[in-house]
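Task card 7
Instruction: Convert sequence to structure tokens.
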Amino acid sequence: MNMQQSIMSGYRKFFTRSGRAPRSEYWYFFLFYLLLNIAVQLLGIHVRTHDHSGIPSILLSIIAMGFWLAALITVVPMLMVTVRRVHDIGRTGWWVGVSFINGLLLDGALGYAIFRATIMHNTQNLQAGLPSGGMAIVLGILGLIGIALGLTILTFTILPGSPGENRYGPNPLDSHATPVSGAQHDRY
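Output:
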């Protein structure tokens, strides 16, 4: 599967968590997702750091917003292709779900800590607003769990798919493989 086929497959299977994805589909879609997010960041930096005025500024802002929306829309297909990739080695997609939930919890805890620190008005109070005690422990634990889950998912995406059919469907690399219907193998 080439990059264009992988991107088309990722968007065509937008909400499809059933079935399997070969390594090429996952890694090409991941590369697309990464490049899209880099473009969004670079455009955002350019828009924020340059003093534009007039129509070019408005046009550039609209283009940046379009890239940002495209990146946001690509989160769900990225999660689904990761679930299908994990299915390809015979593992449950809950690995990806738990990793995603842990990331949300960590982002929320970090966001809370940063918000708490920024509402302090002077440097003496800023030190008091930084995470400490229970919050620091929560952030540390969530961070360690996130690292462990991330390395586990990375390992899963690198491993070759299980040969033949597994409980999530036929091997997508077999030339005689038939597509799996969502109802037949819709296990997360």
